[in-house]
Write a structure and sequence with these properties.
The chain has 470 residues and is mainly alpha-helical. Among the domains are: 92 residues, no CATH class; 235 residues, no CATH class. It contains 23 helices and no strands. Helix 10 runs parallel beside helix 17 and helix 10 runs parallel beside helix 20. The radius of gyration is 23 Å and the shape is globular.
Amino acid sequence: MQQGQRSGVKLALATCVGLVLWFFPAPSGVTIQAWHLFAIFVATIVGIILQPLPMGAVALCGITAVTVTGTLPLNDALSGFSNRVIWLVVMAFFISRGFIKTGLGARIAYSFVRLLGRRTLGLGYSMIATDLVLAPAIPSITARGAAVIYPIVRSVAEAFDSRPADRTERRIGAFLLQNSFHANLVTSSMFLTAMAANPLAVQMAADQGIEITWGRWAMAALIPGLASLIIVPLVLYKVYPPDLKATPEAPRLARIKIAEMGPVQHGEWIMLGTFVLLLALWILGRELHVHSTVAAFIGLAVLLLTRVLTWEDVLREKEAWHTFIWLSTLVMMGSYLARFGFISWFSSSVGGVFSGSGWLPAFLTLALIYFYSHYFFAGTTTHITSMYAAFLGVALTVGTPPLLAALVLAFFSNLYSSMTHYSTGPAPVFFGAGYVTLTAWWGLGAMVSVVNISIWLVIGGWWWKLIGVW
């Protein structure tokens, strides 16, 4: 079957799912308008999963269906495009281009290799440090992991004669790639602006009356995130050790790369200063009365005025505009489902299953189901869109402290991507390098999932209690 025919079949299937739900009688307690919006929402999600068209195109079809059927007025259907949290992510995409264009991201990475790279474990931590520094300002986990970290890891591995073609992948490359991939997921969980779909969870939480600011997210993730970044590499080093333990040549190689880049350029200094300014405004935004989205606009304006970025750079950042369309659409539909009472109806219906049990065992069960259901998803966005709001609603129904429930599910929405080679954008890139077999990838992913869950629920639970999350 040709590509066009396959796309047509997938589109027809998504449409049929929506039509079946549309004409199915609405459950008791659900209005016709809410049920029809739910039908279009599910059809959109099925379309995003099957991908008969790019995700942004599927989202635009969803908006069209919402308006043509009269389910929502046009102004309401377009309301997602004015969401300030979505604009925060879009601005961060543009700002992240500055790290790549100026070469600052690569310079930071090689500087950490020069500092920490005398041993293989130190090399692993140098990549983690790079990812952690870049995470607040690069919201694309794929751009950060696959475009910045992966090429450097691959070049370091090959410099030490570790290549799948030579059957020397375990010499150093397999460990470094696994280590960098799992760290990429942890850093994505540590900042609201570190993964494109994080604001989707924030908006869904806001729809249920829970406010999560940039600073509140970062503070809650700080201790468990750092613990994961320290412990997971140690576990991988023990369970999946590299053959080569010492890498005394790595700092020299890093110095050569830095020398080839030359002295720090004017644009890099401006990029660094803008990044520091952004972090200060994001952390102190509440005290300074500067919303995090306004701070992002300020950062982009500085880069444009100083010519570090041009308007052509902004226009060419396709992933930002693509994210803007699908994220705005999904946020709009999710918000109106909550406003029409659909989420509260679902939460009350499912919450009855846990009646009689305390909130803690009920929430732990919900969180684990949410986490491990990611085996059935290729990507984080569809998982969050399909399940986050519903599981959060059930968690609130059984009595879970609201902010705790919202944050744990949001953190898990990044950490659950450890398990498969199709779980999130960078996964196929790292897996496709051929350094790690499929069996090893799934086995190590399952092990890391247990380690991360233990860290975030035990160490994180203590930390969240200390800072008043619950």
